[in-house]
Amino acid sequence: MAREENLTTENDGDVGAFLDAVPDERRRADAWTLLPVMERATGEPPRLWGTSIVGFGRYHYRYASGREGDAAAAGFSPRRTSTTVYVPLGFDDLGDLLGRLGPHTTTVSCLHVRRLDAVDLGVLEELVRSSYARTVAHRWE
């Protein structure tokens, strides 16, 4: 079986330059606000993953299919219509925090926030801290 390469890899890109280049003023401001929240929640410095994700920490995954690789243990991306916060293991056991967070939507492992000033940043930090701890402790084999 040919191994698929993960296109979203950690690199030496300049996180500050990436955030400064976010075209939408709200997304750019939200990204700069979220950066220290994520640093506190993970205890990790920010690193660029791929071309559009600011990641914190890393984990190695290996699936039964044989696919494996490395990914950010927590991260975010300022997207066109919202800021996406990555929650690798999804939202099981995070319902209470989601209920207290404020306006958001979720998909399998993504939290989408249109306006960071409309959510409780303390709750968001707690959610990221919990998600990060679960992700780095998870057995991926």
TrEMBL record:
<dbReference type="InterPro" id="IPR014922">
    <property type="entry name" value="YdhG-like"/>
</dbReference>
<feature type="domain" description="YdhG-like">
    <location>
        <begin position="27"/>
        <end position="130"/>
    </location>
</feature>
<protein>
    <recommendedName>
        <fullName>YdhG-like domain-containing protein</fullName>
    </recommendedName>
</protein>
<dbReference type="Pfam" id="PF08818">
    <property type="entry name" value="DUF1801"/>
</dbReference>
